[in-house]
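re the bet — no i am not wrong, look at it urself. input seq straight from the record:
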Amino acid sequence: MTRRSARGRGLIEDTTSHFEVEDVHTGDEWPLIRWRFVWGPGPDHSVRSVNVMRVVQAAGYSKTAPTVAALEG
């Protein structure tokens, strides 16, 4: 197992750490998501961060089961 995949596996298997969404701003062309990653008690066991995104184009895709397609007719 590589070092990178070992870190990823550790994050996946850890049941105590979690992400907390602090704020979501979607009012303009530059949405902001402020979040905190918490891995233990107290402020010394967390880190805050922000994702800044630019919405240029959005698309969605959904694969449906054949039984759902039958309901259209």
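see?? Helices lie at 3-13, 66-70. told u. also The longest strand covers residues 18-25. so pay up
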